[in-house]
Amino acid sequence: MKVLIIDPWGIKNTADYLDGLIYGLSPLIELTVFCNYYYKKATNSMFNIHPIFFKKSEMMKPGLIRKFTRGLEYFKGYYEIITNLKNCPRFDVIHTNWLLFYKLDIIFLKFLKKHCYKLVYTAHNAIPHIKGNKSIPQLRKIYSIVDNIIVHGQQIEKELAEVFPIAKGKIYIQRHGFLLKKPYIVSLTYEEQSIVKKCEEFNKVLIFFGLIFPSKGIDRVVSLWIDKYRQYNALLIIAGKTITDYPQMEQLKKEIYRTNNILYLNHFVEDSLLNALISKSDIILLPYKHASMSGVVFVAAQFKKTILFTDSGSLNEYLNSGQDSIVCENTNDGIDQGLLSVINSDRKLLASMGERLQLNIQKKCDWKDICKALVESVYINKRIVMEKNNDNHKNTI
């Protein structure tokens, strides 16, 4: 079976997903991957790799020039893929992992469909977290073109079906996989060492990290912290860059910097420093207002850290609250109760919950099992066999 995967990202916070997918699929099929120019192969998997996307724009500073360059490189990347497809036999499956420019993607998908027996798309979110409602008309067309839509949980499937008119059986639930890697911490600068050392001044350390935008709900935690927890011997770390308008956080900024037990790093934090901060933390916060699934769960599993999360999206399908995590209602009062529970919890208890989280995620989210099921349930089916047989029959006439 010949499968082509297209993933224009596959670096930074999405690298682990592509690594795991390749690791699980490569022993089962003949795999070709078109990916980001800066994707670094992280496993011993055997596959054909074509790093073509975003060679220039990936290294540029954010702004209109980068956005324009990125659009051109995206078009150029897909043009190269389509040119290659015209000169080779049809793939059994073309599977695209991310779509980034929906209006262009609609055109590209129609071309891709001509060169495969089955076109598959992974919808990591039912709709994008940022300005997602504006994308619904384009997504409706995209979902009508592809043969199968992969989502990472039952709740995401339910949300997708509520928003879009999708035929029964077209959606396939595939768990987000986990590939255990040893977290690394390279040498830190003197300034970074002083940041990490601040963690040692407190009895309890809570951390939120990643890109910051409204649906992640960190403003609710900060507001509660300023009002009720600034006198506690506990440190709240917020590490990540705000990537969209977030007026609730903007209004809290002045008070954040006046609060001694909040460490606010409102910029991209390098992996070595972030890993050091996670290592020093007792718990990872996921106070999402709206979520599908989160890769932070797997970072927590890498570091054996438990999670405080709101009951949103499919997070509950991966976590066992009370054993490896703490769930709270998706309200201010719910988050307040969750924070108080964490602060009053014994550190050894939280550490043991983190160990259970890693074991639980390893068991539930093994990439080998996930990819075997993906091949058997989505990639291989009667339609592909019938169409290939028809093609072979035509070639003999």
Task: Give the secondary structure arrangement, pairings included.
Blueprint: E1 2-7, H1 15-25, E2 30-36, E3 48-53, H2 64-86, E4 91-96, H3 102-113, E5 116-122, H4 136-145, E6 148-151, H5 154-163, E7 171-173, H6 190-198, E8 204-209, H7 218-229, E9 234-239, H8 247-258, E10 262-265, H9 271-280, E11 283-286, H10 296-303, E12 306-310, H11 315-318, E13 325-328, H12 332-344, H13 347-364, H14 367-379, H15 382-396
Parallel strand pairs: 1-2, 1-4, 2-3, 4-5, 5-6, 6-7, 8-9, 8-11, 9-10, 11-12, 12-13
Helix pairs in contact: 1-14, 2-3, 3-4, 6-9, 7-8, 10-13
Descriptive account of the structure:
- With 397 residues, the chain is α/β, with parallel strands linked by helices.
- The protein folds into two domains: 2-177 and 366-396, 3-Layer(aba) Sandwich (Rossmann fold), CATH 3.40.50; 190-364, Rossmann fold (3-Layer(aba) Sandwich).
- The chain contains 15 helices and 13 strands.
- A seven-stranded parallel β-sheet has the order 3-2-1-4-5-6-7, with helices on both faces.
- Helix 6 (190-198) packs parallel to helix 9 (271-280).
- The longest helix has 23 residues, at 64-86.
Descriptors for this entry?
single chain, 397 residues, alpha/beta, Rossmann fold, 2 domains, 7-stranded parallel beta sheet, 6-stranded parallel beta sheet, 15 helices, 45% helix, 17% strand
Number of strands: 13
Shape: globular
- Sequence of secondary-structure elements: EHEEHEHEHEHEHEHEHEHEHEHEHHHH
Q: Quote the beta fraction.
A: 15-25%
Helix content: 40-55%
What is the straight-line distance between the termini?
24 Å
Strand order within the widest sheet? 3-2-1-4-5-6-7
Q: What is the second-level CATH architecture of the largest domain?
A: 3-Layer(aba) Sandwich
CATH top-level class of the largest domain: Alpha Beta
CATH superfamily of the largest domain: Glycogen Phosphorylase B
Radius of gyration: 22 Å
Overall mean confidence score, pLDDT: 93
